[in-house]
Amino acid sequence: MDKLYIKDLEVFANHGVFEEEKRLGQKFVISVTLDLDMHAAAVTGDLSKSVNYGELCAEIETEFQRESYDLIETAGEKLTDYILSRYNQIMGVSVLVKKPWAPIHKPLDYAAIEINRSWHRAFIAFGSNLGDREKNIQTAIDSLSARSDIRLLNQSSIIETEPWGYAEQDTFLNGVMEIETTLSPADLMTLLLDTEKLLKRERVIHWGPRTLDLDILFYDRLVYDHPHITLPHPRVQDRLFVLEPMVEIAPWYIHPVLGKSMTELMEQLKKSEV
Are 42 and 140 in the same domain? Predict the structure, then answer.
């Protein structure tokens, strides 16, 4: 990936824990590294296919001065969020914020924080079998796609399926959406759980009825085992109601552990059920 650098941009702002920092302000020195594909701009000479770093410097100053925060960590996080949401062509950003006048009463060049964020590709399974199923699903999709840290790239058809794991319940509506997100896997999982709560999901019976079910199937090609989330989802290959929507929108996506495409996994599962 190509990189664009902005180094040591001086901005006067009012961030800091102490009242004097908020009232008087101080100098901050900001460096930014952008990950983007600059080939089209280089070949055509068209600046619109890259990033106008003059305009970006002005925007960095405006955004960094917009509010006053106790922590430069917060100011840096807000700045990375702005850059990634403002410029669709930027796939990743690193923001270094130096604080040369840090009030610690010790000689130093500066205190600093560095924040690195990028867009990640993820597949989210959704399902519902209680209440207005279609409305539940659409409300969840609208809520997620309205966020600045999520981009909805693709969505499968919604299919009606028999319940899995616990048979004594109504049929489900299921599907899969493909997104890009700057959230970590843990933060994305927390967001999905909060969205389920918004739709009044109650966890009474394991694999039982639910107004909304949201699961991370894949996150980039990450293999990750944590008490609250396992990636890839450990039962992708066992669930036709997951594989059919995946085959519709990403048939040749390779399972990072099993080494087989979604098409191959679906065919394998269908053969095993004959």
Answer: no
Contact 99, 111 (CB under 8 A): yes
**For 80-136, what is each residue's pLDDT tens digit?**
999 999 999 999 999 999 999 999 989 999 999 999 999 999 999 999 988 899 999
Residues present in the chain in total: 274
- Integer Cα distance of 92 and 80 in angstroms: 9
- Provide the total of helices (H) and of strands (E) in the chain, helices listed first: 8, 11
| Structural domain span for residue 139 | 120-272
Residues assigned a catalytic role: 99
Report how far residue 132's alpha carbon sits from residue 211's, in angstroms, rounded to the nearest whole number. 8
Q: Is the peptide bond before 232 cis (omega within 30 degrees of 0)?
A: yes
Structural contact between residues 171 and 129, judged by C-beta atoms closer than 8 angstroms: yes
8 A C-beta contact, residue 120 and residue 219: yes
Residues 85 and 165 grouped into a single domain: no
